[in-house]
Amino acid sequence: MVTTLLDARRARRVAEQVPDPELPMLTLADLGVLREVSLAPDGTVVASLTPTYSGCPAMAEMRAGVAARLRAAGYARVEIRTVLDPPWTSAWITADGRRKLAEHGIAPPGAAPSHATGPVPLVLSPTRRSVPCPRCGSADTEETSRFGATSCKALWRCLACREPFEYVKEI
Amino acid sequence: MSDDHVYMTLAEGHEDDTRWAYGTGFEDPLHGVDTAVPDGVDAGELAALCVTLADDALVSAQRLAEWTTRAPELEEEVALANIGLDLLGQARMLYSRAGQVDGTGRDEDAYAYFRDPGDFRNVRLAELPGGDFAFSIVRLLVLSSWRLAHFERLTAHRDPVLAAIAAKGVKELAYHRQYAAEWAVRLGDGTEESHRRMRKAQEQVAPYLGELFTAYDVRDEVVAVLRQVTEAAGLPMPVYRPLPGSGRIGEHTEHLAPLLAELQGVARAHPEATW
């Protein structure tokens, strides 16, 4: 039993180190998409992943990456499960993940919007948000495009140091 | 260790390397999800609902992708492509769910690539050609408002897989609607020319509204959102004159067949290819 627990923890550590294909400075654990790693009684490692966005094209690669690392670490039987509920939120990006994003010039997300149930309100009045520049720290920044190279990022620029930067959106 | 290289990781398990160009052997997007249908849920109805919602999303995604290299600005092209990608992802999961529960065991590709126009259940509004940017914005506003309201209700569906797909989609549809609404206000309240084009787009969209509101009870909520946007945009609410027929029963315009021909052409020419 103790061996099994230790082994499950070791398997988790292996799976946690798999880099995200689109934000390779983050591990899948940093991003919050690795939900669970457990060991079945027959020795199969069961790893559960959740997609960030419905159209995330990297899911197949994440699954393959986790399975490959676990096999290379000596786990012969690996099963990858997809978990859809609860849906991924940017709030699951860990403190470590946020620090790594900022170190790589990508502004980490702010607080995720909360919506209970019932109709989602539409707000048309301009909302002012301030995203600090990940390079110089200035709050004098503006959005240049709400959509970017991947679903999870927007494009911003800093009006103080003049550098453009990417920003992981709250969702 | 092969997972540091995209190609090597994806190609793993595919002995016939030469086919990689056709795709990467995409796995089921619901891979490893519990496939059971709860007691009391009619599997046939659930599958039909999933296909309907997937068809709306797939056809919309195809029209949105057509703006790539043609949008007024690079930022809008990226935005429309991103929105299309979200819808494509929703379609893939919904098709997979339909195949799990309708007893056929079909995969997502069977639904997307190997059904004919008469088998599609999307609303006709989704298949109309993109035309003017204003038309695409008005259409996106209507379709995303309807889909968001409908998905919000589906989060309480008794099928946990559909409920989870809907809960994920709600977050995405909220910013699709936001994008369309902000452009609608900017164009409606913009220049004389942009206002004129928005009026024209509203007239083109109006006859197709009824198809959205027949099956599901979200009409009041969607109309309230459209009223909020048109008022902010200085536009009138369009007069609704319904057209006979409905895409929901497989009656489509002449525009769906060419759209599907382009979408399905490669898959049908190489049906044995690994996707």
Account of the 3D structure:
The complex is a heterodimer of chains A (171) and B (275). Chain A is α/β, with parallel strands linked by helices. Chain A has four helices and seven strands; from the N terminus they run ααββαβαββββ. The termini of chain A are far apart. Chain B has a single domain (3-12, 41-269), classed as Ferritin, core subunit, four-helix bundle (Ferritin). Chain B has helices at 6-11, 43-65, 74-101, 108-113, 124-127, 133-154, 160-188, 192-205, 209-213, 219-233, 256-269. In chain B, α3 runs antiparallel to α7 (160-188) and α6 (133-154) runs antiparallel to α10 (219-233). The relative contact order of chain B is 0.14. Mean pLDDT of chain B is 89; it is low at 1-7 and 14-25. Chains A and B meet through α3 and β3 of A and α1, α3, α6, α7 and α10 of B. Chain A: InterPro entries: Fe-S_Maturation_MIP18 (IPR052339), FSCA_dom_sf (IPR034904), MIP18-like (IPR002744), PaaD-like (IPR011883), Zn_ribbon_PaaD (IPR056572). Chain A: Residues 125-169 form the PaaD zinc beta ribbon domain. Chain A: This is Phenylacetate-CoA oxygenase subunit PaaJ.
Short précis:
The complex is a heterodimer of chains A (171) and B (275). Chain A has helices at residues 2-16, 28-31, 59-72, 95-103, and strands at 34-39, 45-49, 78-82, 106-107, 141-145, 153-158, 164-168.
Large-scale geometry of chain B: globular
Q: Which consecutive residue ranges of chain A, at least 5 long each, have pLDDT under 50?
A: none
The total beta strand count of chain A reads: 7
Topology of chain B as a string of helices (H) and strands (E): HHHHHHHHHHH
**Proportion of helical residues of chain A:** 10-25%
Report the CATH superfamily of the largest domain in chain A: Fe-S cluster assembly (FSCA)
List the helices and strands and how they pair.
The complex is a heterodimer of chains A (171) and B (275).
Chain A: H1 2-16, H2 28-31, E1 34-39, E2 45-49, H3 59-72, E3 78-82, H4 95-103, E4 106-107, E5 141-145, E6 153-158, E7 164-168
Parallel strand pairs in A: 2-3, 4-7
Antiparallel strand pairs in A: 1-2, 5-6, 6-7
Helix pairs in contact in A: 1-3
Chain B: H1 6-11, H2 43-65, H3 74-101, H4 108-113, H5 124-127, H6 133-154, H7 160-188, H8 192-205, H9 209-213, H10 219-233, H11 256-269
Helix pairs in contact in B: 2-3, 3-7, 6-7, 6-8, 6-10, 7-10
